[in-house]
Amino acid sequence: MAASPRVRVAKAAVAAVALAVAVGGEATVAKALSEGGLQRTTADRPADQRMLAPAAVSRSLSRAPLVKASPVKAPLVKDVPQRRVLLGLPARLSPDGAGIDVGYADAPVVLTVFEDFRCSTTAAFEARQGAKLAAMAAAHQVLVRYVLESSLDQRLPGPGALLATNAARAALAHGGFPEYHALLFANQPDEYTDGFTEARLLQLGSSVPHLRGPAFDAELHDLWYRSWVGQAQTAYTDAKVHHGTPSMLLNGQEVDLGAQPKLLTDPAALGALVQQAAKSN
């Protein structure tokens, strides 16, 4: 026997109340998920479901469950394998004040390396040879003199090289240059992305023990070492090296990386170069 119109209306009212309770319960669950780091809201639903009538929404949810939104994560910091070695290395300004010396003054060989923090070729060099340079410096075999230029800022968007070089100089002032320098290259953003922001540079600084503090943070914010960045750029320009970055001087003489490309990629070749120079002294 068919239900009367009045009974059908009553049943529809009960269903509407039940649906409202269910929606309210889902909102409570969404709030709990949000507080626990997993957020599920109506924004996760397809746009064509957000304005549907309640019955249509109910049918849609039964066919396609809501997709949980992934929590927003801060960029990761990629570590370097030579971390422990770098933490024990001394660093100071070079005699002319334009470079940064890493290693010991009694090393028989001085290897000057010209780098730009935005240069992807230099990042590849550091990935292949950074650990070897650190090991040789720790063994008193070579003093590595870094000259940090920043001319890629003239051709690429943003002041990333300037900001990174200023930050590296601040790291030197606060005892964390060797590791911070390595982390900058290990976490180098794409050349065409202005990724070396103040926030990112501070985050990388947090990965170096005892580096972050009011002074370091202020020196990044205020570009405290901007004039030094210009001095380093002048030193690079005056050197007139032929290979851009990275380039090398061995005891003051330019290394022909075009004739010896393995020096950029092969730790054994780089070690042999330093050993041969040490024997020649």
Detail the poorly predicted runs: 1-68
Q: Which percent bin holds the helix content?
A: 40-55%
**Oligomerization state of this entry?**
single chain
Report Rg: 29 Å
Number of strands: 6
Spatial order of the strands forming the largest sheet? 1-2-4-3-5-6
Shape: globular
- CATH level 3 topology of the largest domain: Glutaredoxin
Mean pLDDT comes to 81
What share of residues are in beta strands? 5-15%
What is the terminal-to-terminal distance? 110 Å
**The CATH top-level class label of the largest domain:** Alpha Beta
**What class would the helix/strand composition place it in?**
alpha+beta
Note the run of SSEs as H and E: HHHHEEEHEHHHHHEEH
What is the CATH superfamily label of the largest domain?
Glutaredoxin
Q: Please, how many domains?
A: 2
- Supply the number of helical segments: 11
Q: What's the main sheet like?
A: 6 strands, mixed
What CATH architecture of the largest domain would you give?
3-Layer(aba) Sandwich
Protein name: DsbA family protein
Organism: Streptacidiphilus alkalitolerans
InterPro entries: Thioredoxin-like_fold (IPR012336), Thioredoxin-like_sf (IPR036249)
Domain Thioredoxin-like fold: 100-256
Structure characteristics:
six-stranded mixed β-sheet, 11 helices, 2 domains, Glutaredoxin, Thioredoxin-like_fold, 281 residues, Thioredoxin-like_sf, alpha+beta, 9% strand
Could you characterize what this model shows?
With 281 residues, the chain is an alpha+beta fold. The chain has two domains: 5-63; 83-280, Glutaredoxin (3-Layer(aba) Sandwich), CATH 3.40.30. It is 49% helix and 9% strand. It is built from eleven helices and six strands. A six-stranded mixed β-sheet has the order 1-2-4-3-5-6, sandwiched between helices. β5 (247-250) and β6 form a beta hairpin. α6 (160-173) runs antiparallel to α7. Residues 1-68 have low confidence and may be disordered.
